[in-house]
Amino acid sequence: MELTPMMKQYLQIHEEVPDAILFFRLGDFYEMFFDDAITASKVLSLVLTGRACGLEEKAPMCGVPYHAASGYIAKLVKAGYKVAVCEQTEDAAEAKGLVRREIVQIISPGTMTDSAYLDEKENNFLLCAYESALYTCLSYIDISTAECKTILFSALSNQSDLLSEIEKIAPAEVVCNEVFYDKYHRHRLFTSRLNIKLSLLDDEYFDYDTAKAILKNQLGPVGDTFFSEDKTENAALIRANGAMLLYLKNMQKSALQYISAIERYSKTDAMHLDASTRYHLELIKSTRGSKKGSLLWVLDQCKTAMGARKLKSWIESPLNDRKAILERQGAVAALRDDLAALGEVRKMLQGIHDLQRVATIICSAACSPKNILMLKSSILRIGEIKECAVLSQSAYLQKIQNQIDDLADLYTLIDQAIDDEAPLAVKDGGVIKTGYHEQIDYLRKMAGSRQEVLSEMESEERESTGIKNLKIKYNKIFGYYIDVTNSYKDLVPAHYVRKQTLVNSERYYTEELKQLEIDILSAEESLLAKEKEIYEQVRTSITSQVERILSTAQAVAALDVLASFAQAAYDNRYHAPAIIEDGSITLVDSRHPVVELVETRNEFIPNSCRLDTDKRRMQIITGPNMAGKSTFIRQVALIVLMAQIGSFVPAAKAEISVVDRIFTRIGASDDISTGQSTFMVEMNEVSGILQNATKDSLIILDEMGRGTSTYDGLSIAWAVCEYIADKDLLGAKTLFATHYHELTDLAQTTDGVINLCIRALEQEEGVIFLRKIEEGIVDKSYGIEVAKLAALPDDVIERAYEILADLEEEHNKTQRGATTPPRPRAKTAQNENKSRLTPNQSAVLGALRTASIDSLSPLEALVFLDKLKKMLMEKEESK
Ligand SMILES: Nc1ncnc2c1ncn2[C@@H]1O[C@H](COP(=O)(O)OP(=O)(O)OP(=O)(O)O)[C@@H](O)[C@H]1O
Ligand SMILES: [Mg+2]
Fold this sequence. Notes:
By secondary structure, the chain is α/β, with parallel strands linked by helices. The chain contains 31 helices and 26 strands.
């Protein structure tokens, strides 16, 4: 038995893309066969059938209609598969034997362009990583927005910097060379945090000469930056970027003309934030994984998707250059000071589509007339924005104004050529405006007059034959025909040729009708062909200007972010921070930007802060649990970060010296898959801080040293503090929240250390949190009080108090000369015999304790009593 010719063709084509699912075009369907069919039917919930393939057993098969393919493709790609689309590249009518078929596009997570399936506020990056003995180069691109960047790491630099950069890029797909693959394909960053499999590319992709030729070809003279002095460094850059372009080319099977530059940047261009700091400061996502509760959530008032993407990248890469910060700040101030203008600008921005994605779609064959109309309506708004007077109010706004191209020529072109009511698909016709092209007008008239000509012929025939209800009709199979009902059969003239007999009528044609049909259909056909041709011309004209559109898009996106900052500043009562240079940070009445918005039950209590490079370098913050220590230290870090992205800040007054980095050591997390326990992770982070921080850094430590025995933890914390505080060793500005009250002694012995605290009031009903930072020490944690608030069973609380009392007594003895650290005493028969309360009984007592009886009406009191009784009974019933 032998495979059918079609199946042979199928298998041959599949060999080109063994790792992809092949969408094989058969008529109006894309079919999948064999293993692909089995996989796809599961992922897409399609019915699995079979098709005779020449072998004994049928080939498993499933298929999707071609017009609905994009949704299915997106679903497969999102599930991590690659999809190769194979089209008929020859007209079936003209083919001799089997129709020719070719793969026209391969779609993978990193090369998806269908904006319907991409998150509009996120970039979709394809990353190519190349590692050699001396360098690792990352090259990444979002082909839906035409943004392409590259960064080089020396083999001597910290590996965590590289990994943290990749995590920041958050690519949808990673391709790499063998060295990189071997080193990282099992790394937790990829297997767990990013959840992507690395794809290994053949060595040929990274061949120096090929890569160089590809880059030269794609980038033209701009690419020369890659070919400068330092040979080894450039070799890595060339190989990584060339490989990425080659991979893309193989996937897209078409030229990517809109990629005309690759932006090279380095770690020092912006403030570097490591992954754990980004995570713990909840910059982009809250620790629960949602956007709500993050800094991005507070600041994102963007009106365009391009703006939202830019805002995200600004937050992740704060500026470290004072001048650049002031530039942005000046722009925010100008917008914030003129609320009317701000409102206008934001209204105009709202009318602008995602120009980056619109532009890249226009450059592709998938471009629909609707995309071109989106560009047109956006250009209208862009023109208005460029004219806005407020843009002359700051140097940075002026720069943006200059970068915005009003694209007037493109507007005129589209306005003249494309019909405002154009359909989604060019093949439906009616795309080119009447009056734009003479021949189209003529053909349209011909095709359009069909109805007139037909009714004219219809009445002529009625008259000449005397058949009163004669009709000329059309169907897809027979074309035009004359319909005569049986009652008039006798009147049918001899020159009518019968086409078909139905129950009640007969269908005829005449030579004249046949000719008319040919004329009409050919006019329609020629019209459509001409429309396509002219449409392509218009599209190409726009494509040739794509750089202007993309550069305008960048400017509009920046304006959108600045307007968003201005709006957030207004809504949340932020003020412009002064950017100073003496190394100090002063915040007056500052607030936590997120907590003040989400925690609406209680008013947020503002706090002030003064850090400097001298006496107030390191601040140890003590206070009860729940007092607000963690909130305060994060708030200081967030405010500094906000200032360095150009935003206003939640403080009545702020003076901030630019910091080179913000480090955090917060919370507990483990990394079991790489063999790291909670404490090991913590110590690694601390070690990273001590190695990388400088005197210009800001360090936030939250309960460092907690993950081990008390004495070990305290000793480490103490030693770390001494190291950081020492000006000769580090001397970084540091806020340290801790429950190790012993650390407060550092202030007496170590230069630059002071103590801050947040007090609580002890009252009969429990502790009251004051949330006010002040200088001094609090040596009580009220941990058990807080546990009580969390409704721990009463007897646990009681027992905890007992143990605490014991320990404190022991501790005092120890201080008086005992040698062993205090330990809780075992339960005694006496306290064991104490009546134990059930959780429900405790709950009833708790409810009684907190109830304010004075404010209850007699009726409410009864209801309350009833509720208490039910609480008790519930327990008994459920037993
Ligand atoms: N300044 C403030 N004004 C109002 N509410 C605040 C303020 N600071 C903190 N809070 C509230 O108190 C809660 C606890 O604060 P936080 O986590 O900072 O306490 P903590 O001192 O770090 O406690 P622990 O020692 O248990 O870690 C916050 O979730 C917030 O709701
Ligand atoms: Mg805390």
